[in-house]
Write a structure and sequence with these properties.
Elements: E1 2-5, H1 14-26, H2 50-58, H3 75-82, E2 87-92, H4 99-108, E3 115-118, E4 129-132, H5 135-144, E5 149-153, E6 165-167, H6 170-179
């Protein structure tokens, strides 16, 4: 099967990355639980808007914030296991200035993929199963790919969507994939 996998918030721990860097740069003490809304990055910071946030995130000296993210627990071993029988297709949305850092991050972390798409309309890439944490993207995938298995990686900033499979961990995702029949015509559970 083709598994369409999001990066930030799913494989890459974007919130831990920016919060750790913010605390170091501004002598702050933000905790990981400060982000509980999809658009909740500005509220706990001193930035006046997202433009300011992204300007800060784009300048790290040796790459942007996207170059220095850790992976979520279980992501790499699960992806490596799944890649033995399935195609891992990376579907991610990034600012233009983060494209090179994203490819470098994928290489550094040895993400088992031969296919990477950096785009806004993830549903334009045909996959059998999609895994994402963005509320807007999960809804869009469900709307545009109703015949595919769409999974919501459960996070504080997203809510259940009818017809979408909730996944709370990488172990849950691996179990789901193992339960699906392989090949064309994979139908949502």
């Amino acid at each position: 099967m083709r598994l369409g996998i999001d990066l930030d918030g799913v494989v890459a721990d974007f919130n831990r990355g920016w919060i750790t860097r913010y605390n170091a740069d501004f002598d702050a003490d933000l905790s990981l639980d400060v982000v509980d809304r999809w658009d909740g990055l500005i509220t706990p910071t001193h930035f006046s808007d997202m433009r300011e946030f992204w300007e800060w995130a784009s300048n790290h000296g040796d790459g942007s914030l996207f170059r220095h993210l850790d992976t979520h627990e279980g992501a790499l071993p699960t992806l490596r296991t799944l890649a033995t029988g399935h195609d891992i297709v990376i579907l991610t949305t990034k600012p233009r200035w983060a494209v090179h850092d994203t490819f470098a991050w994928i290489a550094d972390n040895k993400i088992p993929t031969r296919e990477v798409h950096i785009l806004w309309k993830k549903w334009s890439v045909d996959c059998d199963v999609y895994l994402d944490d963005s509320p807007q993207m999960v809804q869009g995938l469900r709307r545009h790919r109703p015949d595919k298995v769409v999974c919501r990686f459960v996070r504080p900033w997203n809510d259940p969507v009818e017809g979408v499979v909730d996944v709370a961990s990488w172990e849950d995702f691996a179990t789901l994939i193992q339960s699906l029949p392989a090949g064309p015509g994979v139908t949502p559970p």
